Amino acid sequence: MPYNITKKVIEGITEKESNAKWNNLTPYRQSKFFLKSFDKKKTKQVMLQSRTTIALVAGISTGHCLLNRHLAIIRIVEDPSECGKVETSFHFIAECLMYALVRWRLQG
């Protein structure tokens, strides 16, 4: 079998196994909101960014960022809610009405 075909088959099997393992894990609740499965194209896009941007993406996707839920966990703030709901990364990016206009302007 030619090398390039063998390589693609192995990559496909590895990707399937990795995604199955990821989907069966119970922790990483926050990360799973943003990372449904492995995506080679998105990984390449992120890796082309600056270290600051990569750190920001990693922080938001894991929940380790300067939002109130994380700050409450590490005991910097007492109340993890800003608008009446717990300020998680997903809430901040997708749901919060306080940032709806900003989201609308950024997303068009």
Q: In brief, what are we looking at here?
A:
With 108 residues, this protein is mainly alpha-helical. It contains seven helices and no strands. It has one domain.
Could you characterize what this model shows?
The structure is a single chain. By secondary structure, the protein is mainly α. The chain has one domain. Helix content is 64%, strand content 0%. The protein has seven helices and no strands. The mean pLDDT is 88. This is Jg16826 protein.
- Percent range for β-strand residues: under 5%
Strand segment count: 0
Q: Main beta sheet: strand number and arrangement? A: none
| Order of secondary-structure elements | HHHHHHH
Shape: elongated
- The protein's oligomeric status is single chain
Helix content: 55-70%
Mean pLDDT level: 88
Integer count of domains: 1
The SS-based structural class is: mainly alpha
Mind telling me the C-alpha Rg?
Answer: 18 Å
Termini distance?
48 Å
Residue windows where pLDDT falls under 50 for at least 5 positions: none
Number of helices: 7
Organism: Pararge aegeria aegeria
Protein name: Jg16826 protein
